[in-house]
Write a structure and sequence with these properties.
With about 160 residues, the chain is an alpha/beta fold. It has one domain (about 10-155): Response regulator (Rossmann fold, 3-Layer(aba) Sandwich). It is about 50% helix and about 15% strand. It contains five helices and five strands. It has a five-stranded parallel beta sheet with strand order 2-1-3-4-5, with helices on both faces. Helix 2 runs parallel beside helix 3. It is globular, with a radius of gyration of 17 Å.
Length: about 160
Amino acid sequence: MSNTSESKPAPRILIVDDDGDVLEVMSKVLELNGYKPIRATDGKQGLEALRTQKIDLILLDLMMPVMDGFETLDMIQKQSGMKGVPVIVLSARGEKDSVVKALKQGAVDYVHKGTDPDELLARVHVHLTIQQWRQKAMHEYGELIKKEMQEKYRIF
């Protein structure tokens, strides 16, 4: 299920998790399937990566030192430049409260650690596709508004 083409760069996936083994395995799975993984071991590193690099999607652990996943998600939602980046929460926690809280805070999905890699890849692909459609729709909407303004006010 490779997602790269010669004309497009590989989608950049930020993985934020304090478990080195999880980072290693997820990075390898993503890389083998055409994605460019970027690693962060805590929320602060993740936010720094978002500020300095173009990120297409975030895989975010909830239970981390320094800044947990809920805090990190909250910070992402408060930053205008980061808000549109889809966040899939990864957690060993499966309590309904955690799932609901993460989704209410802006996560687009919630995946339990240990989920089959094919399922995780499918979810990543779906959310990247939705994001691409959203960006295309916003661009087309902007062009439509621009055209209407040009016609209405005779701006050329």
